[in-house]
Amino acid sequence: MELRDRINTALKQAMKEKAADRLSTLRLINAAIKDRDIAARGEGKEEGVSDADVLAILGKMVKQRQESARTYEEGGRLDLAERELSEVTVIEDFLPRQLSEAEAAAAVEEAIAEIGASSIRDMGKVMGALKSKYTGQMDFGAVGPLVKDKLSA
User: Which contacts qualify for 58-63: CB closer than 8 Å, 24 or more apart?
Assistant: First the structure.
């Protein structure tokens, strides 16, 4: 629950500083987490979501805002695109540092070796291992083709 505490502390700080944009983004993050908590309780998980789930929520929020910003830029609405990107920077404050391409490639090699993957049939196992280890640190949409290339070669 350390990540939630960091978010709540940042929320309180933004209230004190009267940073309206940051505050609204932090409230959106809290709402998304609480929404997932409610869904988890419905599934019988009384403790709510874990930090790994919170990282996944934050990663999804970043992706959504980047896509929205791209759409707004294409539509000529730079003011809205700028707002989306400013939300991305607030959300990314709580995500771990993203792996570089070289680090991601090394992580893929390590996961393949660790699992002993030899064919494309093992791709799911490799992706599962990467997701359990690097949630929030890599873009799995970009890593998927890399894993596929390594396993097909």
Answer: 58/29, 58/91, 58/94, 58/95, 58/136, 59/95, 59/135, 59/136, 61/28, 61/29, 61/32, 61/91, 62/88, 62/91, 62/92, 62/95
